[in-house]
TrEMBL record:
One of its GO terms (biological process) is calcium ion import across plasma membrane. ANK repeats lie at residues 155-187. Its main location: membrane. It comes from Rotaria sordida. This is Uncharacterized protein.
Amino acid sequence: MLDDIIFAVTNADTDSNQSEVEQQTELMYTDNTIWTAVFNADKTAIDHLIDIDPDVINTRGAVGECPIHMLFLCGTDAHLEIARDLIIRFPIIVTQIYNKPRYYGENILHIAIVKRNPTMVEWLLYNNHLESYREELLTATATGDFFKIGQPSYYGETPLGFACCTNQWDIVEILLKYGADMDATDSNDNTILHMLVICNLSEIYGKFKARWIEQQTINDSKKIIKSKLMKHTKLWNRLNKDGLTPLTLAADLGRAQMLSWLLDERKTIQWSYGNVSCVLHPLDQLDRDFDDDNKQRILSVIEVMIKNNNPELVHPIITSLIDKKWKYFASRILIRRFLITFLYLLVFLGTTIIQQTRPEIIIADENDQKAILINDKYSSVMHKILSRIGRFIVISGALLKSAREIHEMRSLGFWNYINSTGSIFLENFLSCSFCLGIFITQIFHLFEIHHYETLILAFTSLIGWGYMFFFIMPFRFTGPFVIMIYKMLFNDVLRF
């Protein structure tokens, strides 16, 4: 089974990787070698080669494998019988791992799990001869290129992760019985629950979570390092390197079915009366920071959905939450922001008109030709006062908006801020562009570069009033038109 996976994936890899696997295959058909004896399950030949050179058991193949790995990989009863005999004679070989980049870190326990052989898994962990190597077997991590994130065989690196991600709860029970760490994470800080979301295995997720809670309850009742346990974040609230919990990871990957299952799994039924039930859904991770010891800013499910712009993830719970937020406070916030922005833009427009207006003195000569003299010295006091007040309001507004955008950038993370989509991207882009335009305009005004000041001012004014589109996007009748204009500007116009 694993052979098929290896060769199928290898065909898509580089020539160097193909060459290594080809060399491995050639060695199996080369006469009088340990590899031929292993491939043919020839116990007599293997014993003969070991008698000649006991170190032959440590021979490395083309991809970093040892003979014991190939015995497990072939996986027939004859091969496994030879493997048991060699392990009893040379117990240290159970700790051997692939030592080349492609399959680095994989041991025989990983292979036994992928080959779906619970009997061999139990034997490796139960055998008294191997008790001193048990922890090393359970904590080995397969970190080679074949097991990297994004690959079909990304199973969380540890044997427990392999068992969970290949949907083998019987083997999971065996591993847990012999002390496998349920809190283990891989090199991406993904827990087992993260991995189960990636593999879309909701049933195993439920079983593993229940088992983890049970284990924590036992530890708590026995008062085993209780003070330390109290500081631990719950397994389903832990973050990976991308700052995602299992729930938000499901939203980020677009796993609509898994996300729906996770949301339903979190609910609490308060009471039922016939077909009617009162159900509570926790808001942590759904719409706000959950209360734990993590100081890292995390994205909620709604934020991830908006960022990825995936309508398939919309769940009735999320729809209900958004409707309630709009009804109770979001609509008032939008109206208040609209009025403030509209008044600010009116001040900006008035200030621009005042700055561009100068008192004119018309002088006629003897030939009745008229000349216009413009001079700021003749500006009225009121004209100057209004101009300075307007400039102060415009600059102050730009500074406040810039501070807000910087705060949002720091809280969300720079790349999350930059990679936002839809209305969030439109709001961020227009806000930053407008503030930048105001600051550049003021610099040009300070150095009296009036030609470029007027040019930048025109673009800034266009962006400022274009920002008003943001406030009509939520409405059913106007929203589609704004989205259409937005797509035309950023998809079609920018191409030219």
